[in-house]
Write a sequence for this structure.
């Protein structure tokens, strides 16, 4: 439990709350700590709980709170908790205010399961990124915020700021570093998923993106039984070893 990202869901519709709970608990490394229906219940829970949640999924349209007042209350009282509105509120002024209030992401109902999962995977990588660092250089900050000039090179080539849907730049950077550290041994999607804490399909999506970007070369890894596995090696390293 201590190693999991604890989540509080604030949602007055019990059916949607249950859907959101299931979405959260499908993602490895997450646990729903509590589900509450009102702002009063949310604040009472936060006041009495032994361990604060790291993340709150917040519906903006709840019966006892007007607009984003609850977001601002939580931000004021518990600034260490991150928030993601999951709501039908799609007015520009509301979204702008939520982002100004420090919302990590903003998800509009009806919720797309893949979009929801991408948000939680990105949040997990965000926590991992900051927990592993004591200081950050400008290039790391730029990579995280997406404020990178494409002409500004890193040690892993240029950071692509126009990545396709489902490819997060921080996760991509972590994977490139793992491939570089592998020193030409290569890695399978199963091995990568274990190392970065994602599903096998997510790991494969990133690896195949790097193949399409011509940064990674694939080979077949033959085991003692079963079908051969697809193995991924940085193209530069692969060509040096040929």
């Amino acid at each position: 439990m201590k190693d999991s990202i604890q989540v509080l869901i604030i949602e007055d519709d019990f059916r949607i709350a249950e859907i959101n709970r299931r979405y959260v608990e499908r993602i490895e490394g997450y646990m729903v700590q509590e589900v509450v229906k009102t702002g009063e219940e949310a604040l009472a829970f936060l006041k009495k709980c032994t361990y604060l949640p790291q993340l709150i999924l917040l519906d903006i349209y709840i019966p006892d709170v007007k607009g984003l007042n609850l977001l601002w209350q939580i931000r004021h009282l518990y600034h260490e908790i991150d928030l993601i509105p999951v709501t039908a509120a799609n007015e520009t002024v509301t979204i702008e205010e939520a982002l100004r209030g420090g919302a990590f992401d903003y998800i509009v109902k009806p919720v797309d399961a893949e979009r929801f999962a991408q948000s939680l995977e990105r949040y997990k990588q965000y926590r991992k990124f900051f927990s592993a660092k004591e200081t950050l250089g400008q290039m790391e900050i730029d990579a995280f915020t997406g404020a990178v000039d494409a002409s500004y090179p890193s040690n892993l080539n240029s950071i692509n700021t126009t990545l396709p849907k489902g490819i997060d730049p921080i996760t991509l950077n972590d994977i490139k570093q793992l491939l570089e550290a592998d020193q030409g041994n290569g890695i399978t999607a199963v091995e990568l998923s274990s190392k970065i804490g994602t599903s096998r399909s997510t790991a494969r999506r990133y690896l195949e993106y790097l193949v399409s970007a011509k940064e990674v070369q694939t080979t077949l890894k033959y085991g003692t039984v079963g079908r051969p596995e697809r193995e991924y090696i940085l193209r530069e390293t692969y060509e040096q070893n040929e």
Observations:
- Strands lie at 5-10, 30-36, 55-58, 82-87, 107-108, 153-154, 157-158, 187-188, 216-221, 229-234.
- DSSP finds ten helices and ten strands in the chain.
- The first helix runs from residue 14 to 26.
- The mean pLDDT is 84.
